[in-house]
Structure formats: structure tokens, C-alpha cells
Amino acid sequence: MEKHLLMMGFMSAIVLVSVQVHSREFVQCGGSGHHDSGRHEGGRQVEKQECSWTDSQSNRQIPQFSVKFEHDGTSSTETVFICRDLGHVLGRLVNGICYTSWYGREFANKRFQVLTMASQNYHWEVATERIDLYGATEQTDKYLVKGSYESGFNTYVCGVTDGHGVLRAGKLLNGYCWYGAGGRERSYPLASGRVHVLFYTES
After folding, report:
1. Pairing relation of β-strands 26-28 and 142-150?
2. C-alpha 177, offset from chain centre
3. % of the chain at pLDDT higher than 90
4. Are 117 and 129 a contacting pair, CB within 8 Å?
5. Residue 22: which residues within 8 A CB-CB, separation 6 or more?
6. Rounded alpha-carbon distances, angstroms, from residue 153 to 4, 32, 40, 146
7. Distance between CA atoms of residues 169 and 179, nearest Å
8. Which end of the chain is more exposed for a tag (fewer CB within 10 A), N or C?
9. Do residues 63 and 55 make contact, with C-beta atoms less than 8 angstroms apart?
């Protein structure tokens, strides 16, 4: 009996520790609109003024502090911002249209949400190993930025430079960065070394 109680206490401690660690794995930025469907994960809730999803549409000016996808070594001349549609599918905002991908197709959205965050609170980083399984990172001062929940996993913000040198932004899911281009859904695996992932960092 004592051995059983000791084992139960040990298992409870493991669960407690995993919950505490899990609560620091990713960031859920503030915002309005539809709630994610399916299971809800813990995550770190960031104050709205630091990180938020701002409602917008094609005929409005881009909100201040909108997050850009950019990195050295690209010849792309387009300015790409991070957006998600009203169903919270992540994509790229170019010239007032939010392009998202879903089940093999690309969609152009005139109503959407834009990710806004102060520049000192985020950075892009190339990732080559699977980090999106539970949103875990080795460092406790940076966090993946959650977009939504699809196919049993959270989605996180990612971007690639495609074979034509064009910047594409989309959703990190199942070890791939999925994005829309030419009316279709395309992807690059993390192992390709072409995937940039957005991290929220402590200011």
C-alpha cells in the first residue's frame, strides 16, 4: 500500500512538473474573433499591448507594429506581414490581401487579423528540427507564437523563401511550413533548412 501511494505521489509530481513546463512553451497573443476549435492548450498569455491579433480588412491601413517576415539574403521586393483569416488560419498579408492555405488550396481574404508586436519582442530564426510537436523550446526566454489549432496540433507562425526568391508566410504544422502560392497549398519541411520560425522574446 505504501509503495502504491509512493508511486501515485511520484506520478502526480511528474504531471505537475509537465504542466508547469507546458505553460511556458508558446505564446497566445490577445485578440478578438472566433475561438479555436478542438482542444485548448495552456500556453503563456501575453498582454494585449505586447502581442495581439488586430482585426483589419483590405481597405484599411496596416496597423502600427504589424509583424513583418523578412531576413537577410532575400531578393524579394514585396513587404510581407503576418495575418490569419477569420477562422484563424495563418498566412501572409501582401498589398491588403491575406493569403492563406487550406486542404491543398490557397485563399485570398479581404477580412483578416494582423499580428502586431513591438520589434524588440520578436525575431525570426531558421529551424531544422521538429519544435512544433508541443511548442517546446530549450530556452525559457523565447516562445513560439501560436496561430490556431489544426489536425490535432497547434499551428505556429513560419515563413520561407520559395524557389523564385519570393517571401511566403504561413503555418508551422506537423514539421512543415505550409503556405499558399499560385492558388495551391505548398510546404517546406523543417529539415530543408529553408523554414524561418517566429519567436516571441522577453523585452
Report:
1. parallel
2. 10
3. 51
4. no
5. 41, 42, 134
6. 34, 21, 10, 10
7. 6
8. N
9. no
Residues 6+ apart with CB under 8 A from 164: none
pLDDT for position 83 = 97
Show the cell assigned to 178: 505550409
Helix (H, G, I), strand (E, B) or coil at 54: strand
Write out the three cell numbers for 156: 505556429
What pLDDT digit, counting tens, does each position of 170-191 carry?
A: 999 999 999 999 999 999 999 9
- Residue 199: CB atoms within 10 Å: 23
Q: What is the pTM of this model?
A: 0.79
Handedness of CA 85, 33, 198, 134 (dihedral sign): negative
Write out pLDDT tens, residues 145-172.
999 988 888 899 999 988 888 899 999 9
**Do 42 and 79 touch, CB atoms closer than 8 A?**
no
- Pairing relation of β-strands 51-57 and 30-31? parallel
Beta bridge partners of 158: 170, 197
The three grid cell numbers given for residue 134, joined into one nine-digit string? 508541443
Residue-wise pLDDT for 71-112, tens only, equals 765 556 789 999 999 999 999 999 999 999 999 999 999 999
- Name, in order, each residue with C-beta under 8 angstroms of 132's C-beta and a sequence gap of 6 or more: 144, 153, 154, 155, 156, 172, 173, 174, 175
